[in-house]
Amino acid sequence: MTSKATIGSAAKERNGLSPKDFVFIAVFGILLFLVFMVFSIIFSANANLCWFTHTVGALFAGTVFMYLAYRVPKRGAIAIMGIIVGAVGLLMGMFWSGPVGIVVGGIVADLIAGDPQKRTKTKLICAFAAFTFCFWLGQISLILMMGEAYAEMCVQAGMTLEYGQTLVNSILSPMGVVTGAATIAGGLVGGFIGTKVFSKHFAKLGM
Prior knowledge:
This protein has helices spanning 8-11, 19-43, 53-71, 77-91, 97-113, 121-146, 149-156, 161-172, 174-204. The chain is an all-alpha fold.
């Protein structure tokens, strides 16, 4: 199936989202969050690498996102996933802007994916890249709003001042542009990998 082939044959929205769909969205939304969290733990060990978490995490999370998109090809499913993931992030102690970015990312991704009857692989790849970028943007937005004060907030959260300052310097320097571009690239590649992983599986199901 080429990128021009629609996913619409799998959609047929069947009177909207069912209770079973909501359960599936919740399970895979949490799984998506856990994938990113694993890489967050790994990359957070070094403040200079922290903001590349989304780039690398997306390479693996894209498969989870695509499975959800194929399994529940209905309008609103991706947006609801974003709300669930954002809620989980908030409960896990993320600074508030991160969950906001996730929720916005889910809504934007759903809009980009568009009508379930007219979705293509290309649209879904771009949707995942947008979700990943909004996730990253949400997390770094506090630095853009607070500047140096963000480092003090990190101290209050139990980090060292040096660690917090490094996070600030990374975003307020040209490296911030690099990490942003890398995040978009990671989302595109991760989305592409996700479609490839499930291509044969869904082809067999006639999707």
